[in-house]
Amino acid sequence: KNEVEQSPQNLTAQEGEFITINCSYSVGISALHWLQQHPGGGIVSLFMLSSGKKKHGRLIATINIQEKHSSLHITASHPRDSAVYICAVPQSGGSNYKLTFGKGTLLTVNP
Amino acid sequence: NAGVTQTPKFQVLKTGQSMTLQCAQDMNHNSMYWYRQDPGMGLRLIYYSASEGTTDKGEVPNGYNVSRLNKREFSLRLESAAPSQTSVYFCASSDLPGTGNYGYTFGSGTRLTVV
After folding, report:
1. Torsional sign, CA A37, A34, B103, B30
2. To the nearest whole number, what is the mean pLDDT of chain A?
3. Residue A96: how many CA atoms within 13 Å on its side-chain side?
C-alpha cells in the first residue's frame, strides 16, 4: 500500500510570499492529486497530474516520478489561500481509483 | 451545477439511533466513495462502489452499510450510531484514468455528532 508523507504539517506566511508544500509517496503511481480544503469547508480538487508541471492561476504543481515526489507552489500568496492542502495517490500505485491521502498541510497566510 | 451533492450538512444523533447519509452525483462517474475525516487522521475510506451494482469495504467499514441505488446515488447508513462515529463524512465520485473522465469530485461534507 502506498504511503504518503507531506511537509510541512503547518506553514505560516506573510501575504505575497512564495509557498512550497511537498509530498512524497512510496509506490510508483499513475497520477497524483492535490486537494484544497478551507476551514470547515468542502474539498476541492486543484490538480491531477502524472508528469511534469501544471499551472492554474497562482498555483503550480510539479511531479518527479523517478523520485516519487511532488510539490505544490503558490506564488504571491494571499490570505484567501489559507487552507489545508492535501496530497493523494492511488492506494496500490497503479491505475487504481482508491486513494491514499496525506494528513495535509495547514497553510495560514497573514495580511 | 455539476458536482456531488450530500445531505444533510449537519446532524446530531443520540447513541443507538440510525440515519442515512445521501449522496448524488451528476458527473457521469462510475465510481463513488464514502470517506470520513477525523482530526490528525486524514481522509479514510469507509466503503466504495467501483461501478453500479458493486460495493466493497474500505479501511474503516465497521458500523456502516452502503447502497448503490443507481449510477448517480450512493448512500451510507449508520444502523446504531456510536460516539466514535462523530466525524465529518465526505462523498466523492471519480472515474478511472484513461476513461476521459478521470478526476475526483467531492461533496461538501456532513458534520455528524453522536452524543
Report:
1. negative
2. 91
3. 16
My answer on whether omega of the bond before A8 falls inside 30° of 0, hence cis, is: yes
Nearest CA to B59 among B44, B80, B38?
A: B44
Query: What is the distance between the alpha carbons of residues A49 and A55, in angstroms, rounded to a whole number?
Result: 11
Q: Is the predicted pLDDT of residue A95 greater than 50, yes or no?
A: no
Whether A56 contacts chain B with CB within 8 A: no
Which CA distances in Å does A35 have to B20, B21, B27, B64, B69?
26, 23, 18, 26, 28
In the structure grid, which three cell numbers stand for residue A48, read together?
A: 491531477
Residue with more model confidence, B58 or A91: B58
- Write out chain A residues lying below 8 Å of B105, CB-based: 45
Q: Report which of A60, A81, A85 is spatially closest to residue A15, judged by C-alpha positions.
A: A81
Pull the grid cell for residue B39.
Answer: 482530526
3-state secondary structure of B83: helix
| Chain A residue nearest residue B41, CA to CA | A103
Tens of pLDDT, residues B37-94? 998 888 999 999 988 999 999 889 999 999 999 999 999 999 999 999 999 999 999 8
Q: 503511481: which residue's cell?
A: A29
Taking the C-alpha atoms of A74, A4, A44 and B86 in order, what is their torsion angle to the nearest 10 degrees?
-130
